[in-house]
Amino acid sequence: MTPLAPSTGPATPPDTPTAVPCLRTALWSALGCLLIAVACIAWVDRPVADFAHAHTQGTPWIQHVAELPAPLFVLAWPAFVLLGVALLWRRKLPAWAITLWLAAGAVGVGSLAKQALKFVFGRTWPATWIRDNPSYLRDGVFEFRLFGGGDQAFASFPSGHLTVMLAFTTVLALRHRALRLPCAIAIALTAFGQLASAYHWTSDALAGAALGIVAGTMVVAAWQRWQPGTQTLGA
Questions:
Q1: Domain span at residue 162?
Q2: Is residue 121 part of a domain?
Q3: Cys bridge to 56: 100, 124, 196, 208, which one at CB 3.0-4.6 A?
Q4: pLDDT per residue over 95-126, tens digit each?
């Protein structure tokens, strides 16, 4: 049986190699985001929320920017299934299609993981916007309720929007160097929108970014291990 392959032609297409150092750098970046997030809980979260409340919260265009990753929540699973079926049927797909398939899978993995973490940490939101939730800006509430995140009113940590955005863009950036700048811009806009709208704490955004990077990196690494002759994480 012919093995599944991302594309015809050379074993390592010029625009899609992912070297082991790139994967390691991505994972170190995730760890850095997580460590900074811990520090932000103590010293950054509340000042940033106060600033956003005073200057940018409620600005319509910023709220639109904050929702930049919203289509990923809807399209990731259908794209993953459809491209997966096409891959099984045709036995090979162009590199761009493989990238989209992996990115959609990373978004799916990240979405499931962030939902589990929201339940575990049960964090209150910066502002009141769902089910009359207690919040810092209205009620002065700033806390984690471990394993209390079954209610969306206590589900701020980590940021789902940053998780899916980083999961998606990490796959794109690792597989296609030319997309790294557009990916960085999309990440920056999403983070700005989420914080400036007081939708999330700074630490939520950083933790979501860390989770998304891990999801994207692990999906790419798993694909490389599956493909004969490609470099793998830790090789």
A1: 20-226
A2: yes
A3: 196
A4: 999 999 999 999 999 999 999 999 999 999 99
